[in-house]
């Protein structure tokens, strides 16, 4: 009898010797999280046994109270500015947050605007929910705001929502360490996006799962939702910050949070019939992680993770800088996150290269076409792009695999030129 797959990567057939395709932590990191959770579980369950065990009950819609209080302290220290607990809710990760908001807030669907290269599974979720989406060009400092304004002026100028608490459209973007390109949205563009979202009545769903994975020695711009100032006279609440512990700790925890405008939080989360049925999402895991946030062990491990990811990125970049064919281009020098985005020379095809690297070297990566949100007939440049992740391998294996990857690219390009 065949053994059952233990991980998503085994189940979907994405396993390989060198898994540069996977945006997930590897075993040495996960063992540390397992140890952290073992200690936190013992602490929190003893507290529950000594009290009324309310963590084991249907939870409050917004989440475990201790988790939210500890999360506020953690985020305030990380972001270096006050966080309002009344704007937070506990989720089962960024995927669940995106699904809940799209499905509940837009039952009649609308157009979703997104960067022309964006997280491909988010695109698949939007397709499944039957949203139409429009691609917006991406630049080295984030989404092309001028192009977006022209698009919205044509599409949304005369769009009038039937109710004051609805939106005409959605903008989905990954502003920090973009998946897949690694770009960071500039401060100037963050201000501009808030202005445009208010003018054209657009809800921005900001995928912020990489915000806290900046490399040591650097300091990221403020998260996008912080620019949507509640004190502004034209404030409505146009940004949702959708976050996760999947990259910070472990995806197996299925734990995240959203920071929401208070009226959205009340109408679409606290009063949601879905949450009313289930109770707080991920209540048990959030309660356990609360103990790790309270004693500082989670923050310490996340800091160590940042340092380790920076070392891995540096090791992979050093090999690419030395060995990658000169006609290839690294789209953005990573400052954090998980990914390096590479453009092959004109005429090359990342899918054909991937077939070659898998068969000869056991190397997997993600082809650029998967991230393309625009018209399939216009994805020629995306077809010659690819994404590498440095997260899933320790440095020795990462260096070895990256050297082989560069060798494979040389071989593929030489064969293609014949």
From TrEMBL:
<dbReference type="GO" id="GO:0047536">
    <property type="term" value="F:2-aminoadipate transaminase activity"/>
</dbReference>
<dbReference type="InterPro" id="IPR004839">
    <property type="entry name" value="Aminotransferase_I/II_large"/>
</dbReference>
<dbReference type="InterPro" id="IPR015424">
    <property type="entry name" value="PyrdxlP-dep_Trfase"/>
</dbReference>
<feature type="domain" description="Aminotransferase class I/classII large">
    <location>
        <begin position="38"/>
        <end position="353"/>
    </location>
</feature>
<dbReference type="Pfam" id="PF00155">
    <property type="entry name" value="Aminotran_1_2"/>
</dbReference>
<protein>
    <submittedName>
        <fullName>Aminotransferase class I/classII domain-containing protein</fullName>
    </submittedName>
</protein>
<dbReference type="InterPro" id="IPR015422">
    <property type="entry name" value="PyrdxlP-dep_Trfase_small"/>
</dbReference>
<dbReference type="GO" id="GO:0030170">
    <property type="term" value="F:pyridoxal phosphate binding"/>
</dbReference>
<dbReference type="InterPro" id="IPR015421">
    <property type="entry name" value="PyrdxlP-dep_Trfase_major"/>
</dbReference>
């Amino acid at each position: 009898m065949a053994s059952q797959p233990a991980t998503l990567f085994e189940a979907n057939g994405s396993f390989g010797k060198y898994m540069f395709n996977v945006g997930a932590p590897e075993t040495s990191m996960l063992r540390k999280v397992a140890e952290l959770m073992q200690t936190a579980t013992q602490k929190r369950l003893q507290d529950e046994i000594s009290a009324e065990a309310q963590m084991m009950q249907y939870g409050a819609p917004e989440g475990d109270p201790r988790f939210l209080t500890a999360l506020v302290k953690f985020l305030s220290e990380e972001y270096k500015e006050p966080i309002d607990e009344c704007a937070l809710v506990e989720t089962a990760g960024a995927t669940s947050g995106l699904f809940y908001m799209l499905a509940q807030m837009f039952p009649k669907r609308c157009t979703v605007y997104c960067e022309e290269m964006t997280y491909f599974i988010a695109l698949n979720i939007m397709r499944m929910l039957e949203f139409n989406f429009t691609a917006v060009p991406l630049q080295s400092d984030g989404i092309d705001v001028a192009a977006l304004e022209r698009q919205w002026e044509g599409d949304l100028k005369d769009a009038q929502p039937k109710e004051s608490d609805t939106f005409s459209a959605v903008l989905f973007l990954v502003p920090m360490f973009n998946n897949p390109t690694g770009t960071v949205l500039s401060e100037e563009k963050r201000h501009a996006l808030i202005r445009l979202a208010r003018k054209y009545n657009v809800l921005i769903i900001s995928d912020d799962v990489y915000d806290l994975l900046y490399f040591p020695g650097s300091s990221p711009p403020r998260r996008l939702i912080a620019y949507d100032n509640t004190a502004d006279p034209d404030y409505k609440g146009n940004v949702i910050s959708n976050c996760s512990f999947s990259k910070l700790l472990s995806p197996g925890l299925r734990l995240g949070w959203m920071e929401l405008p208070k009226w959205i939080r009340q109408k679409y989360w606290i009063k949601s019939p879905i949450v009313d049925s289930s109770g707080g999402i991920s209540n048990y895991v959030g309660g356990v992680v609360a103990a790790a946030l309270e004693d500082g062990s989670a923050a310490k491990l996340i800091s160590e993770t940042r340092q380790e990811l920076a070392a891995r990125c540096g090791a992979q970049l050093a090999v690419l800088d030395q060995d990658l064919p000169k006609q290839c281009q690294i789209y953005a020098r990573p400052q954090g996150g998980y990914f390096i985005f590479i453009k092959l020379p004109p005429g090359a095809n990342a899918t054909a290269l991937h077939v070659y690297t898998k068969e000869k070297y056991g190397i997997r990566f993600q082809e650029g076409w998967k991230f393309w949100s625009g018209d399939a007939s216009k994805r020629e440049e995306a077809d010659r792009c690819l994404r590498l992740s440095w997260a899933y391998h320790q440095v020795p294996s990462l260096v070895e695999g990256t050297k082989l990857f560069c060798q494979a690219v040389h071989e593929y390009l030489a064969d293609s030129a014949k």
